[in-house]
């Protein structure tokens, strides 16, 4: 397992941002572009802030989203909105290279259209993890956990809503997967994951690189 633990959320985000620069440089060097899917939630905000100050060849970066809430792009709940106000408004990435999941549309139609615009293979999928062990919008007990294809509409009864999400097939087809997880609230789930317990959705992500802060990693066995 590739597990990197840093003392604080800021240090964890900074390390992930530096790794993002390296991954982008390698993808551009090898294939002329960097196709990366951002995750949602709040954890990425610190990484976005760190990325704004780093040297990335943004004109060769294509941004996607691993999941999205069924809201419009200006809604503060939107993962696109979080990325836009935290990063995309501050870097010279062509608007045509920001590929938004259209949460305001019919979920099934939006999912189908999004799958059609994805590259054959993403270079990187950035993911977070909820304190219930979900990742992207693949929540415990939802149909999406077992759906194939690339992008789905997933009903999330525990949140009384639908979400748009990559499937695990899509996530695991990418060249790389990073899980950025910080905060003590995530520690119990991580400890169970490490013990092979809990049956959490995130365990279906293959060969991730874990970027953890000390609080999230506090219950893990000393490596
Ligand atoms: O849309 C979302 O909510 C995310 O894609 C989700 O999978 C997120 O990564 C986790 O819920 C962690 O969220 P936090 O970073 O806010 O803890």
From TrEMBL:
* Highest taxon of source: Bacteria
Question: Could you tell me the keywords of this UniProt record?
Answer: Hydrolase
GO molecular function term, any single one: 6-phosphogluconolactonase activity
Q: In which pathway does it act?
A: Carbohydrate degradation; pentose phosphate pathway; D-ribulose 5-phosphate from D-glucose 6-phosphate (oxidative stage): step 2/3
Location of the Glucosamine/galactosamine-6-phosphate isomerase domain: 8-206
Record bears the keyword Hydrolase: yes
Which residues does UniProt call coiled coil?
none
Q: Which reaction does it catalyse?
A: 6-phospho-D-glucono-1,5-lactone + H2O = 6-phospho-D-gluconate + H(+)
The EC number on file is: 3.1.1.31
Reply yes or no: does the keyword Electron transport apply: no
- InterPro entries annotated for this entry? 6-phosphogluconolactonase_DevB (IPR005900), 6PGL (IPR039104), Glc/Gal-6P_isomerase (IPR006148), NagB/RpiA_transferase-like (IPR037171)
Q: What does this protein do?
A: Hydrolysis of 6-phosphogluconolactone to 6-phosphogluconate.
Q: Which family does it belong to?
A: Belongs to the glucosamine/galactosamine-6-phosphate isomerase family. 6-phosphogluconolactonase subfamily.
Kindly provide the name given to this protein in its UniProt entry.
6-phosphogluconolactonase
């Amino acid at each position: 397992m590739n597990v990197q633990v840093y003392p604080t959320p800021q240090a964890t985000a900074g390390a992930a941002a530096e790794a993002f620069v390296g991954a982008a440089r390698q993808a551009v060097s090898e294939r002329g572009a960097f196709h990366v899917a951002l995750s949602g939630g709040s954890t990425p905000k610190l990484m976005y802030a760190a990325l704004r100050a780093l040297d990335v060849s943004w004109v060769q970066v294509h941004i996607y989203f691993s999941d999205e809430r069924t809201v419009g792009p200006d809604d503060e709940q939107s993962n696109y909105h979080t990325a836009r106000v935290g990063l995309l408004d501050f870097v010279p990435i062509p608007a045509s290279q920001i590929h938004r999941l259209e949460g305001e549309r019919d979920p099934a139609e939006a999912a189908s259209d999004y799958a059609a615009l994805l590259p054959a293979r993403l270079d990187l999928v950035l993911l977070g993890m909820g304190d219930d062990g979900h990742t992207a919008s693949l929540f415990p007990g939802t149909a999406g956990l077992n759906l194939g294809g690339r992008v789905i509409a997933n009903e999330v009864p525990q949140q009384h809503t639908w979400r748009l999400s990559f499937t695990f097939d899509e996530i695991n087809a990418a060249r790389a997967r990073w899980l950025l997880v910080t905060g003590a609230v995530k520690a119990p789930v991580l400890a169970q994951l490490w013990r092979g317990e809990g049956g959490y959705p995130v365990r279906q992500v293959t060969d991730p690189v874990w970027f953890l802060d000390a609080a999230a990693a506090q219950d893990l066995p000393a490596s």
